[in-house]
Amino acid sequence: MMSNKSRSDPPFSEVEHFVLACKLWRRSQLDRHLWQPPCAPTWRHDEVGSDRDRPLLDTLTLSLIDVRLPKAASVLIKRRRILSSSGAAMQASAMTTAFPFTHCHPRRLRDLLKSGAASRMPHTQLSPHELCELQDTFRASLPTCDTDPCVAQRHQIEPLRTYKDPREPTLAFSPLLTTPIRYDCVFATMKYLLSLVALATALNSVQVSHAAAAHASLEKRAADTITVHLDQCRGPPQHYGSGMLYGAQGTNSPPQSYLEKLGINSAPLITDISAGGAQSPTSGWGSSKAHYDARFMTVVDDWKRMQALNGSFVIKTSDLWGADATQGPNFPFPGDGGNWASYDAFVQQIISDIKKHGMDVSLMTQIELWNEPDLGKVFWARSQDQYLEMYARGSRAFRKAFGPKSDHHLPLVGPSSASPNPNNDWFKKWLSFVRANKDVQPDIYNWHLEGGGTNDPVSSSQAMRDLIRQYGLDIGLGFQTNEYGTREQQRPGYAAWHHARYEKVKFHGMRGNWAGGPALRDNLAGLLIKNPDGSYAETGEAHVWAIYGGLKGSPCVTQEGHALDSYGIASPAKRTASALVGNTGFTGTANVVFKGISALGKGASHLQAEVQVIPYNRGAAVAAPVRVATQPVNVEQDTASVQINWTNADDAYLVTITAA
C-alpha cells in the first residue's frame, strides 16, 4: 500500500532511495566500496527529455523494479546513513504525491513490447503502457542544466551540513563531487531518480496491472472495520511482536529503567534482542582474536540486560566474525582457500565463552549461524557452496555442544534469509541442502521482513510453512523473524499493526534497526530519541510499545479490516476491554467493533468508551497519548461499536470500553 507520508516530513526515505539509485544506476550488484554518482558517462542533464535518453530510462526503470528494491535499500541504509539539509528541494518528491498517468504514444508501447519489458517485470506485473507513462511523468520534472554534476570516477564521502532530526545523530553526509555544480540540478536529478524508486516500490506493493488500479489504490476509503471478540480471550499476554535488533549497549545505554518501563512483571515488553557486537570500534574474529574478545564482551553485557527482563537473546555469530557490512574488500571469510581451521576454532571459542559467562540458558539463548547470506556480497562475500559448508560445520558443532538432548539446549536459528520465497534460487538450494542433511535443520526457521508491501508475518509465515512441507522438513520449534519493518514503517500506526499481526501468528518478531555506528546499539532501535545532553525522550512508537506491553488481561481473537488490525485484550475482573489499533495507510472512518460484551460480566449493557491517539509527530518526541473522545456506547445484540475519525495514517489509536 502506498504511503500517506506528509509533505512536511523530513526527507529520510527520499535521500535513502537516492543513495540506492546511485548504486543501481551504475551497478547490478551491491558494492559497498565504490560509491558512484547517479549518472552514466553517456548521459547528461541537457539530454533529458530527448529520444536519446529513452533506452537508458527503459533499462533503469526495469532494473529498479526487478532488483528487490526495498531490501537493497535496507543494506545501504544500514551501512551508512546519508542525510541532506536541502529538504526544500525534495518537497515535491513523488514519494509524497499521487502519480499521474497521462497518454503514452503507441510507438513507445511498441518499442517497450519489442524490448520484452512485460516479461522482465515479474514483481510488479506493470504493463508497458504504465512503464512509459511513469518515465514520461518523471522526465518532465527535470530542468535543463548547463553543468553536468556527475563524474564517472570514484569519489569520497565528506561531512557537509547538518539536518537536525530527533531520531538520528546530527552528522550528515553528502557526495563530494569533483566538478563545479549547480545544486538545483543535483537535487532535480535526485528527485527524478528517487521518484522512479518510490513509484517502483509502491507498484511492487500494490501489484497493479493497469493504471486504473494504481489510481484506485490511492483513493481514501470511506470506512474500515476491525472486530475484537471478547468471548474468545485466552491466557496471559506474550508480546510476540516486541523483539528488536540491537538497540542497547553496555549496562545503561539507554538506562535500564526504559526497558523496565516497557515491561510488565515477568512478561517483558522487549521479549527478544538479537546482537553480536556489530559496528563496534573493533572488528571480529576475521581481524583478530582480540577484536573478537572485545565484541563478545558487548554480547555478554546485552545478554545480562535481557536476562534481567526474563527475555531471550539471539547471538549473531556473523557479527562476532566481523561480517557486519563494514568489513573491507580483503576481509577473510570462513573456509577461504578450503581452510576451515580458523572457522572451527571460532565456533569452539564461542562455545567456550558462552559456558564461561553462564549464557547457556536453555531456550533463552539462541544462536544465529549467519546474517542475510543471500543478500549479494554484503554479509557473505563468497559462494553459496562455501556458505553451505560453513552452515553445516557450525550447526553440527553448536548442536553437539548445546543440542536438544543436552542440559543446555540453545536453539539454532536460520537461515536469516533476506528474501525467502519460492522464486529465490538461493533459498531453494538451501532448502534442498537441509533436506539432504537433516542434522543441520534449524531449530527455529527465521527470515527477515524488510521488503516491499506491508511486511506481513501472517502471509509470509504461511508461505514459509508451505515451503518447508514441500521439501519434507519439520517445523521444529517454530518460526522467528528477527528483523521486520522498513524505516518508513517505523511509525505508531504500523507499529500497532505489526504487533497485532504477530499476535495472530504467535511467534516472535524483532524490530529492524536502521541506525549505524554507535546509534545501532542505543535508542532501542529508534524508539527513543537521544538528546544532546545524553538524556532520552520517547517517540510516539515508544508509547505504542508501552501500551502493548502494559495492557492487562487476556489477549482476544481479532478480525482485521482492509488496512487496519488490532491487538485486543479483555479483563473481565475489571469489566474492561481495549483495542490497540494499527494502520497500514488508511484514512477515513474506522469502526472498532467489540463482540461478546457479556463476557465482561453480568449487566454489561451500559458502556463508556475512551479513545486516545498515539501521534507520530513526524518522529519527534511525544509526551503521552492524547485523549480525543469519551462517550457512552450502546450495546445491541451483545455488540458495541466505537468510531475513529482517522486523519493521519501514521498515528495509532487505543480504544478502551468499560462496563458500568
TrEMBL record:
Keywords, comma-separated and alphabetical: Hydrolase
Gene3D superfamilies: Glycosidases
Superkingdom assignment: Eukaryota
Hydrolase is among the record's keywords: yes
GO molecular function, one term: hydrolase activity
Record InterPro entries: GH
Protein name: Glycoside hydrolase family 39 protein
